[in-house]
Write a structure and sequence with these properties.
InterPro entries: DUF212. This is Acid phosphatase. Keywords: Membrane, Transmembrane, Transmembrane helix. Pfam families: DUF212 (PF02681). The protein has one domain. The longest helix is centred in the middle third of the chain and has 49 residues. It contains four helices and no strands. Helix 1 packs antiparallel against helix 2, helix 1 crosses helix 4 and helix 2 packs parallel to helix 4. It starts with 6 loop residues before the first helix and ends with a helix. With 160 residues, it is mainly α.
Amino acid sequence: MELLMNKPLLLALACVVIAQLLKVPIQYMLTRKFDLSLLNSTGGMPSSHSAAVCALATAIAFEHGLGSSIFALAAMFAIIVMYDATHVRYEAGQHAASINDLYKQMTKLFDDLRMTTGETRDAAIRDDLKTLLGHKKSEVYAGCLTGIVMASSYYLFFQS
């Protein structure tokens, strides 16, 4: 099966798994909170998206050279993904946090108004919007470094 022999793809997928696994101990070291939900979350240190696209670009560089068109494609793809993670998705998370805060303030205001009029509260339960969508630049850099180091290590030490 050719797909299972595609080293750049396999390295990129391995980097996603490793970066997701690294999020738990890194978060524990920073906060002293053990949170397994990070295994299946966006955001956090390191960025698994950045690790994957940088591993992919690095592997393609090793296999096809820095001057190849396929490396150019992979490098531009990596740059766009990392830009999106640090700008677009990060800002969307900030907006979600503001909306969640506004919702809580409005709920409290309406609860206070109901208490003065004697009405009972019959509000719908709403989950908070997800705020951990994007990454800080340091998380993207760490993910990128994870991908480059893993792919380079494979080609330098394990490739015959």
